[in-house]
Amino acid sequence: MSSKKTRTESDRLDHIIAEVRHDRERREKTYRGRALKMFPWICARCGREFSGKKVRELTVHHKDHNHDNNPPDGSNWELLCIYCHDNEHSRDQVAEWYDETTPAGGQEPRSGNRPFASLKDLLKDKKS
Ligand SMILES: [Zn+2]
Ligand SMILES: [Zn+2]
Predict the structure, then answer these.
(1) pLDDT in tens, 43-88
(2) Percent of the chain topping pLDDT 90
(3) Is there a domain that residue 41 lies in?
(4) Is residue 35 included in any domain, yes or no?
């Protein structure tokens, strides 16, 4: 009957993680949409043009590498194709522009055997 005890904690953590992720995705979508409206759909590095569904391969790069810096005039943005963007970030992390890939397997490891359970039994044994 008390199997639910540990769930609340991990549930809350799941919720927080989901919230943060959702928030980031929403923010990325917004500035991406704005950048796409503002600039021609051309990679600023290789000059490839994009249209229709292909525009998925066009990503927003932040010139100062700070994705929290999103001035309304778009001065910190640059549209780059995923290849040039990859190049641009080859030294540091590229996670910034992955707006669709979420790591598979969102499950947490099951905490089947918990070391404390046996410890508790031990203590209980001593007491009685
Ligand atoms: Zn390019
Ligand atoms: Zn970038």
Answers:
(1) 999 999 999 999 999 999 999 999 889 999 999 999 999 999 999 9
(2) 48
(3) yes
(4) yes
Ligand in closest contact with the CA of 46: 1
Structural domain total, the chain: 1
DSSP E strand stretches across 30-94: 58-62, 77-81
Report yes or no on 92 lying in a domain: yes
The answer as to whether 73 is a domain residue is yes
Q: Are 43 and 88 in contact (CB under 8 A)?
A: no
Checking if the pLDDT of 113 tops 60, the result is: no
Domain that includes residue 74, residue range: 7-101
Distance 63 CA to ligand 2 centre (A): 7
Higher-confidence position of 106 and 81: 81
Instruction: Give 58 Cα–ligand 1 centroid separation in angstroms.
Output: 8
Question: 53-91 in b/e burial notation, b at 16+ Cβ within 10 A?
Answer: eeeeebbbbbeeeebeebeeebebbbbbbeebbeebbee
Q: Given a cut of 60, is residue 127 above it in pLDDT?
A: no
